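Sequence in, structure out.
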Amino acid sequence: MVFTTRDVTLMDSQRPDDTHPLGRERIHLLLLEDARRGMEDIAAGRTEDADAALARLQKSRAADAGSSAFAALGVMNNEWPV
């Protein structure tokens, strides 16, 4: 069977557009799941001060960036070869 452009356009116009609403529903369900897990973390005492968490992450990233820069140059333990 051969479909013409007109046939495909007609079939496409009759297809229900269910992808967009389902996508929004999925996002809502994911947000609700994140909120539920956050509430469980709070109840279990798994919290951290935001400023302390950001400082810890920045320090970790700076250390990772420094060590990877040395590794790219072939330097071990941040010591230059002599």
